[in-house]
Specification:
Elements (H helix, E strand, L loop, with lengths): L1 E4 L5 H15 L6 H5 L3 H14 L5 E6 L5 E9 L9 E8 L8 H15 L5 E6 L4 H7 L3 E10 L2 E10 L13
Parallel strand pairs: 4-5
Antiparallel strand pairs: 1-2, 2-3, 3-4, 5-7, 6-7
Helix pairs in contact: 1-3
Protein name: GNAT superfamily N-acetyltransferase
Length: about 180
């Protein structure tokens, strides 16, 4: 498995992972009608724009199998809301269902964290839907629930939990065996 920076031509693979992982991860959490209407095309321009942006303090990395298929991605940068005392944010981390719980998520997240550290970011937050099974992953990586907020997806109000790291150098230190 190769973890590398996203580049031109990766948007289709990233949009595929984004769409498919939403459909498997959020089924039973997010309204089915919303998930059933997600398409690669609806996510494609977002990822093309992100790849082209070239913002130095942001990073988008992919997990690529030997045969070139993208099976996961993660992205992060400066914290976006400014309401809490965190300077870095892991914006998203998604994996296809068949490669979840294989260590790829930890590799992707660690790549993003190292990038944030090179840009002098010291504290990290990531937001996850409260009923998302990935919440356990964030806790295993040392994240502590620090805030909740409401988010509306597909006409339904859901709760997001913010997981925080007070010291980014400790990211992953609390990692426990499965």
């Amino acid at each position: 498995m190769l973890i590398r920076l996203a580049r031109e031509g990766d948007a289709q693979g990233i949009a595929h992972v984004h769409t498919e992982s939403w459909k498997t991860t959020y089924r039973g959490i997010v309204p089915d009608d919303f998930l059933d209407h997600l398409t690669i095309e609806s996510r494609l321009s977002q990822w093309e724009k992100t790849i082209r942006s070239g913002e130095k303090d942001q990073i988008l990395v992919v997990a690529e199998q030997d045969h070139g298929n993208i099976v996961g991605f993660a992205c992060g940068g400066k914290e976006r809301e400014g309401k809490l005392p965190y300077d870095g944010e892991l914006y998203a981390i998604y994996l296809l269902n068949e490669v979840q719980q294989t260590g790829i998520g930890q590799q992707l997240a660690t790549h993003v964290v190292h990038h944030l550290q090179t840009h002098n970011m010291k504290r990290l937050i990531i937001w996850a839907l409260e009923r998302n099974s990935a919440c356990r992953f964030y806790e295993k990586m040392g994240g502590t629930p620090v805030q909740t907020q409401s988010i509306r997806i597909g006409g339904q109000d859901l709760i997001e939990v913010g997981y925080g790291w007070e010291d980014l150098s400790l990211f992953g230190e609390k990692s426990l065996p499965d």
